[in-house]
Amino acid sequence: VQLQASGGGLVQAGDSLRLSCAASGIAFSTYVMGWFRQAPGKEREFVSAINWNGGSIYYADSVKGRFTIARDNAENAVYLQMNSLKPEDTAVYYCTVNWGRYWGQGTLVTVSS
């Protein structure tokens, strides 16, 4: 199983970023896909998840209204659109399958104030 996350970078507060995660080696369309993040010195925390057909979507309270998760089963990809970014969103963002069964390598998002 490979999960390749991309799209991170250095942005200013209020900016937007779109993270992508390309999956291979799994029956992608059957799994819940999600994003977690880990800020420096903190534990990894849940950000968002989406079920196989997008019918059920979950967000952490800290990102509701700002982040949007989506998936493309034809492309074996999951996305995280992040708007109105805040310095506290700074973290390594990890793509995950089935609530942590598999993890990608992470992509760093840094939001400057």
Which residues sit in consecutive blocks of at least 5 with pLDDT less than 50? none
Q: What's the overall geometry?
A: globular
Gyration radius, rounded: 13 Å
Tell me the number of strands: 11
Main sheet specs:
7 strands, mixed
Mean pLDDT: 96
Helix content: under 10%
What is the end-to-end distance?
Answer: 37 Å
- Name the structural class: mainly beta
What order do the SSEs take from the amino end to the carboxyl end, as H and E? EEEEEEEEEEE
Count helical runs.
0
Beta-strand content estimate: over 45%
Can you describe this structure?
- By secondary structure, the protein is mainly beta.
- It has no helices and 11 strands.
- Strands 2, 4, 5, 6, 9, 10 and 11 form a 7-stranded mixed beta sheet that branches.
- A hairpin with a 4-residue loop joins strand 9 (91-97) and strand 10 (102-103).
Question: Which structural traits does this protein have?
Answer:
seven-stranded mixed sheet, mainly beta, 113 residues, 0% helix, four-stranded antiparallel sheet, 11 strands
Short account of what is shown:
With 113 residues, the protein is an all-beta fold.
